[in-house]
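Inverse folding, one chain.
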């Protein structure tokens, strides 16, 4: 299994930092953008550890189906504050708000 090293963490957070207000990106999308398409789960783990790296808009990252992070009760209100559309309580309307990336 690949480890989360400093370079991986910084690569992930650099992408997270450029996700625009009111848009979301997926774990898969971030993994692809950093050149590590096979490591989408590792992206999620890295985001779970991101608190030690300062403030980043990690709330803008969801699954490919638009599902929110289970148990992260602040994510939905943060996305609603950015006018991100939802299709139900636990999923953003991914087709309407997914950032197309760089």
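Residues assigned per position:
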């Amino acid at each position: 299994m690949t480890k989360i090293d400093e370079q991986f963490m910084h690569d992930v957070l650099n992408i997270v930092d450029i996700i625009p207000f009111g848009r979301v990106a997926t774990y898969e999308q971030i993994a692809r953008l950093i050149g590590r398409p096979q490591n989408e789960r590792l992206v999620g783990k890295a985001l779970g550890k991101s608190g030690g790296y300062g403030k980043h808009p990690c709330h803008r990252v969801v699954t490919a189906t638009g599902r929110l992070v289970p148990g992260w009760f602040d994510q939905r209100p943060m996305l609603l504050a950015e006018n991100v559309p939802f299709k139900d309580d636990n999923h953003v309307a991914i087709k309407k708000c997914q950032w197309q990336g760089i």
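The chain has five helices and four strands. The chain has a mean pLDDT of 94.
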